[in-house]
Design a protein that fits this description.
This protein is mainly α. It contains 7 helices and 3 strands. The two termini are about 35 Å apart.
């Protein structure tokens, strides 16, 4: 089990092998570890991996760059919980990403149970648009927007809340959707 996080000065990523309590700079990790991480990203996050390849390059010589960028955007907080298990499955966390300007490449895309269209609705709703305005922006009917919002509330567990609208806006801000 590994936890991956920035050092105090935020100049390098550290990889802590939790059971052994051993902390290693990511740039000093064995090549086999980098290769396994790179392969796990390719297998488990193919869309992010494609964007990483476009940004960092294809081939084994660029594996470290891809792994670094992926880890910086999906982990990087020292919270005492593993980020990668022994089988190289990821336990991503929402982090204040230092590479946020590259998110248009989608390799630190927000992972959610919401569909892309539902995320579009959340973004517009949190930006202050009402259902009719959202419908106009997305070229869908107001009834469809209302259905999306109902499903979003249900998926996020906001139904029955006193102020689901405020909670939805808070969700959008907390997850850097706006």
């Amino acid at each position: 089990m590994f936890e991956i996080y920035w050092n105090q000065a935020k100049t390098m990523l550290l990889v802590e092998e939790i059971e052994a309590g051993q902390v290693t700079r990511m740039d000093e990790m064995p090549p086999e570890w980098i290769q396994r991480m790179d392969a796990a990203i390719a297998e488990n996050r193919p869309f992010q991996y494609k964007a990483l390849c476009l940004d960092c390059g294809h081939g084994p010589q660029h594996a470290y760059c891809r792994v670094f960028q992926f880890c910086a955007c999906n982990f990087s907080l020292q919270d005492g919980r593993p980020d990668v298990d022994d089988d190289f499955n990821f336990i991503t966390e929402r982090v204040p990403c230092p590479l946020r300007h590259k998110c248009e490449l989608n390799y630190c895309a927000f992972e959610s149970q919401l569909s892309k269209r539902e995320l579009d609705v959340v973004k517009l709703f949190a930006a202050g648009f009402n259902e009719n305005s959202i419908a106009g922006q997305l070229y869908i009917s107001p009834a469809t927007v209302h259905n999306h919002i109902t499903k979003i509330y249900s998926k996020l567990g906001l139904t029955g809340s006193d102020h689901p609208d405020r909670l939805l806006v808070s969700f959008a801000y907390n997850n850097k959707l706006i």
